[in-house]
Amino acid sequence: MKKQYFINANIIDPYNSLNEIGGLIIGEDGSIEAIGKKVNKNNIPSREKVIDLNGKHIFPGLVDMRVFAGEPGYEYKENFRTLSNAALSGGVTSVVTMPNTDPIIDNVTIVDFLKRRGRDKSKINIFPSASLTKGIEGNNMTEFGLLQKKGIIAFTDGVKTIQNTRLMYRIMTSARDLNCLILQHAEDYELAKNGMINDGVIATKLGLQGISDLAELIIIERDLTLLENIKCRYHISQISSLKSVETIKRRKQRVKFTCGVSINNLSLNENDIGDFRTFLKLSPPLRTEEDRVSLVQGLNDKIIDVIVSDHKPEDEESKRLTFAQAATGASGIETLLTLSLELYHNNSVKLETIIGALTSNPAKILKINKGNLNIGNDADFCIVDINKPWIIKKNKLTSKSKNTSIENKKTQGKVMNTFVKGVELFKL
Amino acid sequence: MAAKTNKAIKVSQKHLLGIQDLSINDVNLILDDAASFIDLNKRKNKKLDILRGKTQINLFFEPSTRTQSSFELAGKRLGADVMSMNITNSAIKKGETLIDTAMTLNAMHPDLIVIRHQDSGACNLLSQKVNCSVINAGDGRREHPTQALLDALTIITRKEKIEGLKIAICGDILHSRVARSNIYLLNMLGAEVNIIAPTNLMPKDIEKFGVNIFSDMKKGLKDCDIVMMLRLQNERMSSSFISSNREYYEYYGLTQDKLIHAKNNALIMHPGPMNRGIEIDTNLADDINKSVIKEQVELGVAVRMACLKIFCE
């Protein structure tokens, strides 16, 4: 590979507290050779081809902690190849895939298979998570230690929650022994039973069973009470309400843990469901505008550490049903960055904070050497025109499933190029 | 051709999916038209040819006696060819989706589809996929517009008008599409609406719909002109909402000692089917001076005739 030179970029690398105009040199081995303001036209040999980015942004490749891949078992919804292409077009170069596949990722044999598939078919870095319990049934723990040795970096039941408090106690204890990371999807099943959307005026109007924000809060409070006694690596996958933000703010003063939020809950509220739009049937559900604003504030105040796409590809057939029957989830990996940039454009959140929540923060939580632009590291990064207008059209999306929650939305900011290990794998 | 009709009757909507979509003009149009069918339904010869040559399909995904027969009769009296399908035990069981069923029926070129479905919003989904008008005969717990319209017509025939009346809706509000449609309609027509239910059976934020809420039935009934009782929908309850039927009857069943808090000439209504001895005292239900429950059924046919006629055009 030839050396590549970029100059005049707005470089933001929260891991290195870098926010300056400068250049980037990629070495012949695809790693970062030099970065920052010291890289400019004057110190690059004149015979080399230099790409002038004219003020476009360079961000580290995004790290998306919550992605449903569909492989194995649901390849008709998404496979590693289509997922890679979708991710790359959104500037995402590393993903944590959820274990809710068929078969479920709950033993070392399937992990071997998955890693091979990921390596052969995927162009991005795939970090599979394994389930906390066998078969995601919430009864028996999986082999955290052996799975970790096979390269699993996080454990979660994905769309499911550990309901049994005694089991959660033991999971946390094992996780502490083995230094494993737990990702919890917080929902009390009994309180949320048959629920479809936020419990409130919209649920009453549409005649749909509501999900109270207490269903999320109860699990968060329970887990954090356990955590104060059993200190392990614990992360709440996604929160959705003002109540959760307030609790987490209070608890973070006493015990160390992290938490994430879906870009859907940061950008949309329950009113967007309109006339039974099944593409906005999500878990956790979209809540009130007051809840959404509190999540944005939580991101500003560093109460929320991570933004995820919660990318959940669903085929058209499973959404062309009544709201009660329709599948839950939205495709979102391609639009994660542009929707996040909306928070910057409307002056809600600083750009560094947004990029930190999409790159260095998840990487630190996962303890992976990604989401940064360290010298000597793989050159995983994206070039972004943060002002470029873009209207989301589902038929233009790369993902195999087109269930975007923001069809026809006018956004601002588009990924122009994405590089993995110094190779340009996406170009607009 | 169209000059035959004396004045242009046009509703603002293509489909009748819910009261919330209707304007006050639409409602008055339907109610006026329905009133004209009341006498017809008492005549010996009840047959008209307004809908001759039209095909009406009744698509019932949920069991129903009165609504289904009412729609069937209404269509037949207007001269339509009526086909009733009970889907509870047919194609759906074989895995066909609502949209596929809709497409199949649509290929037979019906002029009207009347649908009842256990899922809220099913009629909305159907209306997006078929060419003809769709009439909602009840979707989940969302709306049951023809019930609200027939309730309004019943009140108007007895009390002249709805504006200024105080109306109590009492019982299982949470699971009730009848309650929701009635709240929209009665508010639109200028009534003051009191909602009475144990809080476990009250939908979240219902007060934002412009109603007064009460968990004490006697307070809620105070000075009411109309007492509308709802059925306790045990079949929709997945877990314990109330402790027992007898306790429910004690606190929320309509009995003489509670009814005295309403106005002397208050009327009792119920959309049926009734659970006698659970939400209503059996003698009160049959009291011909107070109860208009049978009248509701009778006027139901007239209202549905009006709806079929208006939405078929």
Structure characterization notes:
The complex is a heterodimer of chains A (428) and B (313). Chain A has 428 residues and is of the alpha/beta class. Chain A contains 13 helices and 18 strands. Chain A has helices spanning 80-89, 108-121, 144-149, 165-178, 189-192, 201-206, 214-229, 242-252, 263-267, 289-300, 336-345, 351-358, 360-366; strands at 4-13, 18-26, 32-36, 50-52, 57-60, 62-67, 92-97, 125-128, 155-156, 181-184, 197-198, 210-211, 233-236, 258-262, 306-308, 381-391, 410-420, 423-427. In chain A, strands 1, 2, 3, 4, 5, 16, 17 and 18 form an 8-stranded mixed β-sheet that branches. In chain A, strands 9-10-13-14-15 form a 5-stranded parallel β-sheet. Chain A has a 3-stranded parallel β-sheet with strand order 6-7-8, with helices on both faces. Chain A starts with a strand and ends with a strand. The relative contact order of chain B is 0.16. Chains A and B meet through helix 6 of A and helix 4 of B.
Q: Helices and strands in order, then pairings?
A:
The complex is a heterodimer of chains A (428) and B (313).
Chain A: E1 4-13, E2 18-26, E3 32-36, E4 50-52, E5 57-60, E6 62-67, H1 80-89, E7 92-97, H2 108-121, E8 125-128, H3 144-149, E9 155-156, H4 165-178, E10 181-184, H5 189-192, E11 197-198, H6 201-206, E12 210-211, H7 214-229, E13 233-236, H8 242-252, E14 258-262, H9 263-267, H10 289-300, E15 306-308, H11 336-345, H12 351-358, H13 360-366, E16 381-391, E17 410-420, E18 423-427
Parallel strand pairs in A: 1-4, 1-5, 6-7, 7-8, 9-10, 10-13, 11-12, 13-14, 14-15
Antiparallel strand pairs in A: 1-2, 2-3, 5-16, 16-17, 17-18
Chain B: H1 24-38, E1 55-60, H2 66-77, E2 81-86, H3 98-106, E3 112-117, H4 122-127, E4 133-139, H5 145-159, E5 166-170, H6 177-188, E6 192-196, E7 212-214, H7 217-221, E8 226-229, H8 245-252, H9 256-259, E9 267-269, H10 282-286, H11 293-312
Parallel strand pairs in B: 1-2, 1-3, 3-4, 5-6, 5-8, 6-7, 8-9
